[in-house]
Amino acid sequence: MTRSLKKGPYLDPKLMKKIEGKKPDTAGVVKTWARASQISPEMVGFTFGVHNGKEHIPVKVNEDMVGHRLGEFSPTKKFIRHGGKMQKEQEQKRKEAEIVAAKAAKTAETTKKK
């Protein structure tokens, strides 16, 4: 759900105070816990360390991010992979294909030299 137009966008006052009067190239990483804060045009170029619950993930803000929330670019859950027998078989086939491709490239290289 979007925020009411009469209220305006949510910009964390502490965060805005941290970047006020600074230039993006000299500010370094600005640490913040304000994941709900929207990205405004004044933030473009800055690098924010957005907290994901465990660590600060650096997020470099560009023009395409304006209007989105800072938390969207700092995932809180780490995807490992889906396990199981099928996954192992797929990985094994992928490794075998890489080996075959490497051997083919090596033989093609040696035939070119001759």
Mind explaining what this structure looks like?
The chain is an alpha+beta fold and 114 residues long. It folds into two domains: 13-73, 30s Ribosomal Protein S19, Chain A (2-Layer Sandwich), CATH 3.30.860; 81-114. It has three helices and three strands; from the N terminus they run ααβββα. The protein has a three-stranded mixed β-sheet, covered by helices on one side. The longest helix is centred in the last third of the chain and has 29 residues, at 85-113. The protein is elongated. The termini are far apart.
Structural features:
alpha+beta, 30s Ribosomal Protein S19, Chain A, 3-stranded mixed β-sheet, 3 strands
Order of helices and strands: HHEEEH
- Broad shape: elongated
Task: Report the count of strand segments.
Answer: 3
Total number of domains: 2
Q: What is the gist of this entry?
A:
With 114 residues, the protein is α+β, with helices and mostly antiparallel strands. It is 35% helix and 12% strand.
